[in-house]
Specification:
It comes from Companilactobacillus futsaii. The structure is a single chain. By secondary structure, this protein is mainly α. The protein has one domain (about 5-190): Tetracycline Repressor, domain 2. The protein has 9 helices and no strands. It has helices spanning about 5-25, 35-40, 45-50, 55-80, 85-100, 105-115, 115-140, 150-165, 170-190. Helix 1 crosses helix 4 (about 55-80) and helix 5 runs antiparallel to helix 7 (about 115-140). The longest helix has 27 residues, at about 55-80. It is elongated and about 65 Å long. The model has no long low-confidence stretch (mean pLDDT about 90).
């Protein structure tokens, strides 16, 4: 790769990094491409040379973040895959909350409000292909310990529904959520009724 191509790749990566930070903390509507360009000291036309419009930039920024996060989450799973189910689920959940900075509810609202069904499908495929795959492996590897009357995708989906509100952009909230996670996972696994 020549110097010019390397500079172009560096610019594209920098745009995605800044765009992701802004989109995931402030939301789609509150983030302007002008602000992203200003943060990078480039012009909007230069940014649009790489990413044709705001929607494409949003989708690519999410892909960029989810891809990096998913690779790291998979490594965390591989390091801990021999732990008992509850410990493994706790480790993976702590990693997700500690390392995935996102305001999930703003992101969901943005996707539902500003994107077409086809665009939403593309975004959700990237989203599901990342963290979902790892959690599926966690549940699948311990399927003999789990209820057989509930399909593993149902179990994973239910767990994610419970976990997603704990994933925050704010550092202080993420730390608080990690501190409460052991109790939440225990309740998810064991329920709240007496045996």
């Amino acid at each position: 790769m020549n110097v010019r191509d390397q500079q172009a790749e560096n610019t594209k990566s920098a745009i995605l990094k800044v765009a992701a930070e802004m989109f995931l903390s402030q939301g789609y509507q509150a983030t302007s491409t002008r602000k992203i360009a200003q943060e990078l000291n480039i012009t909007q036309p230069n940014m649009y040379h790489y990413y044709k419009n705001k929607k494409i930039l949003y989708i690519k920024a999410l892909e960029h973040v989810i891809s990096g996060f998913s690779n790291n989450l998979l490594e965390e799973y591989k390091k801990n895959q021999d732990l008992p189910f509850e410990e493994l689920l706790l480790k993976i959940s702590q990693f997700m909350i500690g390392n995935f900075k996102i305001n999930y509810f703003i992101m969901r609202n943005d996707i539902e409000t500003f994107f077409t069904p086809e665009e939403r499908k593309e975004i959700m495929q990237n989203w599901d292909g990342g963290y979902y795959k790892v959690l599926f492996n966690v549940f699948q590897s311990h399927k003999d310990e789990l209820r057989s009357d509930l399909a593993i995708p149902v179990q994973v989906g239910t767990f994610l529904t419970m976990l997603l509100p704990y994933i925050e952009y704010n550092d202080a909230k993420r730390k608080r959520n990690i501190a409460n996670l052991k109790t939440v996972i225990n309740i998810f696994i064991n329920g709240i009724t007496k045996n």
